[in-house]
Amino acid sequence: MNLPATFHDLSGTSVFITGGGSGIGASLTEGFLRQGARVAFVQRSESGAFCDEMERATGTRPLFIPCDITDVAALKAAVDRAAEAQGPITVLVNNAANDERHRTLDVDEDFWDRSTGINLKAYFFAAQAVIPGMQAAGGGSIINFSSISYMMGNAGYPAYVAANSGINGLTRALAREFGPDRIRVNALAPGWVLTQKQRDLWVTPEGLAAHIDRQCLKDSLAPEDIVGGALFLASDLSRMMTGQALVIDGGVVVTG
């Protein structure tokens, strides 16, 4: 990963990333490591090989903590472990999500609860877990990954779209409540990022061509295209930015 800028104030920062071992999350972990940050991440799947790769590439090994983020007690324990190992967490990146396709008439209560547990509930409780440490440290940055799905009103995954809209509301509410503590809370909404999972499950030549046709910029998005926005929101360069949604989608939705 070649980043065209360095965010010097992130060096030594304790960063916690959910889903930081694959997809966009893996690029986020690498991006923060390349700034000299101390990165801890949670992931359900084994990530030892990824940690080895990051240590070779950046000279620093991230702290991997196996965790199912829908288990709130385990998530809070992971936050505590990361803070004990790497210092008070002052950057939280709520990245983990599951955009499994589904049809409204097929959704039962268990699926709904599981989907919102991953895509919204875990965001709230991760934030709740890190906020006391941020208050004690004099501030911090929480970055909640959403997507443009709720802005577009996409069909095909209504529980996911609902959660993404909820993330936007949660972001604004937390920004207002904890602004006096100098805790900034922003959302980051990517467009269709071509992770390996997307390529394996949902990308078709026709679908991708139609989507890129809607973009102002005619290149597909890769995970590393999202990293700069996250680093900016974590850095003091965005010190007076909170309660906002930063869209990185190649210009599908035009906000303002």
From TrEMBL:
GO MF entry, a single one: 2-dehydro-3-deoxy-D-gluconate 5-dehydrogenase activity
Ranges where the Ketoreductase domain occurs: 13-192
Annotated keywords: Oxidoreductase
EC number: 1.1.1.127
UniProt xrefs under SUPFAM superfamilies: NAD(P)-binding Rossmann-fold domains
One Pfam family, short name: adh_short_C2
Superkingdom of source: Bacteria
InterPro entries in the record: KR_dom, NAD(P)-bd_dom_sf, SDR_fam
Record's keyword annotation contains Oxidoreductase: yes
Family as reported in the entry's similarity comment: Belongs to the short-chain dehydrogenases/reductases (SDR) family.
Name of this chain's protein: 2-dehydro-3-deoxy-D-gluconate 5-dehydrogenase
Originating species: Jannaschia rubra
